Amino acid sequence: MKKIILAPDSFKGTMSAEEICDIMSAEIKAAYPNCQAIAFPVADGGEGTVGAMTRAAGGQIIKCAVKGPFGEDITSFYGRLESGAAVIETAAAAGLPMVRGRENPMETTTFGVGQLIGRAISDGAKNILVGLGGSCTNDGGCGAAAALGVRFYDGSGRLFVPTGGTLKDIERIDISEASRLLDGVSVKLMCDVDNPLYGPKGAAYVFAPQKGADERTVEALDDGLRHLGRLLEDICPGISRLEGGGAAGGMGA
Q1: 43-250, what's its fold?
Q2: For burial by CB atoms within 10 Å, which of 87, 89, 149, 189 has the most?
């Protein structure tokens, strides 16, 4: 018997790795009825990461209601592995395909990603894995942080949820509530880039153009990330220079 092993990644913005495996398997069996097609869908932290990991390690997909890239109500998901760990895709609540034709990294948010993390914690997960690929955002992960209890204040003392275009307005960050929520929880980020938070090789200059940013917007986004970086240095020294900090529009940092 012939045997064919299928191990595709997703086709960005079109099909998941699992969908591709299903199509390939059907076509192979149609052409070679006696051939065995073995599917191993893979992912790089972006679309399909949850599906690939739950399939490989055993687990289930948990659906839940969260906010989308523009704050709209959406149905998203996370993966609960048999080990008890939770796997979350940034792309599941802030993915580039979700804003096709209306890309705007100045306004999109990772708030829904934070909600997914919060839901996994409330469901009992103590180990959280977050894939950072395929995002449409450039908010430095502030949306996700806000959903987990981090408070951002502007110069007037107003509480708000920063986006890429309003990072520059952050005056003060309070992490006390989030620290309580995340006490005893391990959060690990998965990414395949080493870009820092800002600068010529940072989140805005390297990734924002594919998210809809023109040259002037890239400069504004980078300025916002620089401002955020200065504030984060008071909380975690060296974070601005962290390799991978620029992943998912700065969510790595």
Answers
A1: Glycerate kinase, domain 2 (3.90.1510)
A2: 89
List the one residue out of 153, 79, 65 whose CA is nearest residue 111: 65
Give the residue among 203, 243, 232 at the shortest CA–CA distance from 220.
203
Single-letter code of the amino acid located at 44: D
Q: Rounded distance, CA 68 to CA 88, Å?
A: 14
Distance separating alpha carbons of residues 197 and 159, to the nearest angstrom: 24
Helix-strand-coil split of the chain, %, nearest 5: 40, 20, 40
pLDDT tens profile 176-186: 999 999 999 99
Q: How far apart are CA 19 and CA 36, in angstroms?
A: 18
In DSSP terms, 36 is beta-bridged to 3
Rounded distance between C-alpha atoms, residue 46 and residue 137, angstroms: 13
pLDDT of 43 over the 90 cut: no
Does the structure show a pLDDT above 70 at 79? Answer: yes
Main-chain phi, psi angles of 59, to 5 degrees: 160, -165
Would you list the domain boundaries of the chain? 1-42, 43-250
Q: Backbone phi, then psi, for 65, in 5-degree steps?
A: -90, 125
CA atoms within 13 A on the CB side of 120: 31
Q: Please, are residues 113 and 90 in contact by the beta-carbon 8 Å criterion?
A: yes
* Cβ pair 253, 243 in contact under 8 A: no
| DSSP annotation string for 87-102 | EEETHHHHBGGGGTT-
In this structure, which amino acid lies at residue 153? Y
Rounded to whole angstroms, the Cα distance separating 25 from 5 reads 10
